[in-house]
Each structure stands twice: as C-alpha cells, then as structure tokens.
C-alpha cells in the first residue's frame, strides 16, 4: 500500500473535505431564474441560418436568419482565415492563417434577420507566397426565452 504524505496532500485533503462539509443543495430561494440561456452546439445550425457570405480582402460579411421561435442575441461566429501556400510541397515556416471569434451584437427576433460585417484586425498581410481562404460558421448564441 502506497502512503501519501507531505504538505500538498494535506492541503488537497483539507480543501476537498472543506468543499464536502460546506456543500448543500440549492433551495428555491437560492435559484436565480434568467430568461436567457446558451444553446447547445447541436441546436445552433437548426436555429440560425448563415447566407450570402462575402469575402472581400480583409472583410467578411453576410446575413443571419433566426429560424427559431425565440429571440436570439449575441450570435457568435467562428471566422477562419486558412493560408494556402502556392507550393504546398514546400510550405514556408511563417503561416499567417488565423481563426477569430466574432460576436454579432444585438437581437434577432423569431423569423427575423440581421447583417454582419467583420474586418480582420490586425489586417491580413499582403503576401505573394500564397493566399487566404476564409470560412464562417455560427458556433453559438444566446436564446431569450421571455420578457426580461
């Protein structure tokens, strides 16, 4: 049987015991009910449609349509700038590709739509050894269940 001793073990045990001693189930008075919730990723595609995406240099734009029966807000996009080397057999060492999360501010009512525009910051570098391929996907949003 292996024995654990020393200060780190004692501190970890004390913390764990302290958490157990002070843990208690939430009472109804402790629960804060919010009309907002983050939606699981498997429901994102069925709730928000992304269309008319355009890429012009550093700028990505498009239209978001709310296909759900709830108000949606703070739609989060994943914008990826993949770098495609001119010579894929001998790529360079400095890959300028990047991915960013962009939150589209505001609310989209059920059945409504909104436009978005994102400008790369910092700007994409101008290079002759390849090109960028941009892609966009909806990765999250907040669903508002009722009046606040």
H/E topology pattern = HEHEEEEEE
Figure out the total of helices. 2
- Give the N-terminus to C-terminus distance in angstroms: 58 Å
- Please state how the strands of the largest beta sheet are arranged side by side: 1-7-4-5
CATH topology: Immunoglobulin-like
Main beta sheet strand tally, sense and closure: 4 strands, antiparallel
Radius of gyration: 24 Å
Helix amount: 10-25%
Q: Would you identify the CATH architecture? A: Sandwich
Q: Overall 3D geometry? A: elongated
Given as residue ranges, the uncertain stretches (5+ residues, pLDDT < 50) are 1-35
Number of strands: 7
Oligomer: single chain
CATH class: Mainly Beta
The averaged pLDDT comes out at: 79
Beta-strand percent range: over 45%
Work out the count of structural domains.
1
Structural class from helices and strands? Answer: alpha+beta
Sum this structure up briefly:
16% of the residues lie in helices and 46% in strands. The protein has a single domain (35-144), classed as Sandwich (Immunoglobulin-like), CATH 2.60.40.
Question: How does this model look, in words?
Answer:
- The chain is of the alpha+beta class and 148 residues long.
- It has one domain (35-144): Immunoglobulin-like (Sandwich), CATH 2.60.40.
- Helix content is 16%, strand content 46%.
- It has helices at residues 7-22, 41-47; strands at 36-38, 48-56, 59-66, 71-85, 98-108, 113-119, 130-144.
- The chain has a 4-stranded antiparallel beta sheet, with helices on one face.
- A hairpin with a 2-residue loop joins strand 2 (48-56) and strand 3 (59-66).
- The chain starts with 6 loop residues before the first helix and ends with a strand.
- The model is unreliable at 1-35 (pLDDT under 50).
């Amino acid at each position: 049987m292996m024995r654990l001793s020393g200060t780190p073990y004692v501190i970890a045990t004390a913390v764990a015991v302290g958490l157990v001693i002070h843990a208690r189930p939430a009472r109804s008075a402790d629960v804060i009910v919010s009309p907002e919730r983050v939606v699981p990723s498997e429901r994102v595609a069925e709730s928000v449609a992304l269309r008319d995406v355009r890429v012009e240099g550093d700028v990505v734009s498009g239209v978001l349509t709310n296909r759900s029966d709830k108000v949606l807000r703070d739609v989060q996009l994943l914008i990826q700038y993949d770098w495609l080397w001119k010579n894929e057999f001998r790529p360079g060492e400095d890959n300028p590709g990047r991915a960013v999360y962009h939150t589209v501010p505001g609310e989209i009512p059920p059945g409504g739509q909104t436009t978005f525009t994102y400008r790369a910051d910092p700007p994409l570098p101008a290079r002759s050894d390849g090109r960028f391929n941009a892609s966009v996907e909806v990765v999250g949003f907040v669903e508002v269940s009722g009046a606040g």
